[in-house]
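Minutes, project huddle
Topic: does the predicted pose make sense with heme C bound?
PN asked that the exact inputs be recorded in the minutes so nobody has to dig through chat later. Recorded below.
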Amino acid sequence: MHRILAPLAAAGLIVTAGCSGGGDEGPPSSDGDSEETATVEEAEETPAADSTDTMDGTVFAEFTGDAAAGETVFSQCRACHVVDPGVNRTGPTLHNIVGAEAGQIDGFNYTDANANSGIVWTPEKLFQYLERPQRIIPGTRMAFAGLSDPQDRADLIAYLEANSE
Ligand code: HEC
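Predicted holo structure (tokens), as shared on screen:
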């Protein structure tokens, strides 16, 4: 028991010591901490605009999308999006979104993050984006965690394609 807890206690002491530095207590005792602090932050890199790598390793082409099932999945988007042409709500219309350049729906006020992402909404890119939108467009205003089930994503994309022309 003590053997397992001891390192945790030690780690706690190190953290506490690190936090008490600076302020009016005198000069920092060493520079050794800065490097350690930097590694604590996990810098998750944004995939390039033309990257379609998913977190779960799935590939769009491995799935057959079912538009009818996708309509049900779309109920998770409907609070903010519709597929009617020209109808923007909290989010832009998703009519004709498949194949479109990001940030180009007329009359919708995008964040710079979305507008300047350089993304083209191919099915493969949507498949990646919908897994975790914030990973693909950090700073997006779209408050949606993502769809972890790749079949749901493929079905939804089939539905969106059926609502494009
Ligand atoms: C809580 C509201 C909300 C939900 C839920 C939501 N979105 Fe969005 N979505 C937005 C907003 C707002 C934007 C614009 C983001 C920006 O400008 O930063 C957006 C942007 C998008 C874009 C980029 C559009 C473009 O023209 O570049 C796509 C694609 C998209 N959403 C698809 C979906 C899909 C599919 C779902 C359901 C799985 C969904 N969204 C759920 C609010 C939402």
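Observations noted during the meeting:
- Confidence is low (pLDDT under 50) at residues 1-23.
- The helical segments are 2-19, 33-40, 67-73, 112-115, 123-129, 133-136, 150-162.
No decisions taken; revisit at the next huddle.
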